[in-house]
């Protein structure tokens, strides 16, 4: 994974730096914005059919995490231990399924007692990952099952901030309808509104303006 640096004088992206964690940042004083978690290249390639095996005649083994991300996870693959198994990236099947919007996988995992509130190594939860990737229906399921709307990762980013950064208007709308805190700041002093303005997401900015107006009138 790479991290880009924003030149504080010109405002241009000036270079790249390899990093190993799951979260990257563009930082320019107080006007910084985070880049939320992205699934690993290995799983992305597998999902697209790009992964090559050394011995094609052997059946490809897929972990419960891969099956969850591909929407091919069924009760026959699981027991309670596997449903909560943590992979080498510190992620559970719930987090993979949420990131890829695989509703069938989530339903299967919940039936097997998977921990919906588990957080990844950077404090990211299922709702944040679903919001980051614009999976509206997944978000509705997670909210209905009790995930806290205003919970944050280690950098103070809520699901609302993830949704705004990804420019997912319908996800932002859903979170606001469920009382997401529009004033919440992350550790870089970014709010949902400042991220929308900084990235010139006009539709989301208008949505946030409407929400603020309603709050002031109530």
UniProtKB/TrEMBL annotation:
The source organism is: Sarcoptes scabiei
Name this polypeptide is given? Ankyrin repeat domain containing protein 20
Under SMART domains, the record lists: ANK
Q: What GO terms in the biological process aspect are recorded for it?
A: exocytosis
- Give the matching InterPro entries: Ank_repeat_dom-contain_49, Ankyrin_rpt, Ankyrin_rpt-contain_sf
What's the short name of a Pfam family annotated to this entry?
Ank_2
Q: Where are the ANK repeats?
A: 89-121, 122-154, 155-187
Q: Which gene encodes it?
A: SSS_787g
- Mind telling me which GO cellular component terms the entry cites? host cell presynaptic membrane; other organism cell membrane
Its domain of life? Eukaryota
List where in the cell it is found.
Target cell membrane
Which keywords appear in this protein's UniProt record, sorted alphabetically?
ANK repeat, Exocytosis, Membrane, Neurotoxin, Presynaptic neurotoxin, Repeat, Target cell membrane, Target membrane, Toxin
């Amino acid at each position: 994974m790479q991290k880009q640096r924003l030149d504080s004088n010109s405002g241009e992206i000036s270079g790249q730096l390899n990093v190993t964690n799951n979260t990257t940042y563009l930082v320019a004083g107080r006007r910084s914005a985070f880049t939320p978690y992205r699934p690993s290249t290995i799983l992305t390639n597998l999902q697209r059919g790009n992964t090559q095996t050394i011995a094609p005649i052997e059946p490809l083994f897929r972990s419960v995490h891969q099956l969850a991300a591909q929407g091919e996870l069924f009760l026959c693959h699981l027991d309670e231990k596997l449903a909560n198994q943590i992979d080498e990236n510190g992620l559970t099947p719930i987090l993979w399924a949420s990131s890829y919007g695989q509703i069938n996988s989530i339903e299967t995992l919940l039936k097997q007692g998977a921990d919906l509130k588990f957080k990844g190594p950077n404090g990211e939860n299922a709702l944040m990952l679903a919001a980051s990737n614009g999976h509206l229906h997944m978000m509705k399921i997670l909210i209905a099952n009790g995930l806290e709307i205003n919970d944050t990762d280690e950098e103070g980013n809520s699901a609302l901030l993830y949704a705004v950064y990804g420019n997912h208007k319908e996800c932002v709308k859903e979170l606001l309808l469920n009382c997401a805190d529009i004033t919440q700041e992350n550790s870089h002093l970014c709010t949902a509104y400042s991220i929308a303005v900084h990235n010139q997401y006009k539709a989301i900015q208008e949505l946030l303006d409407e929400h603020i107006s309603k709050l002031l009138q109530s």
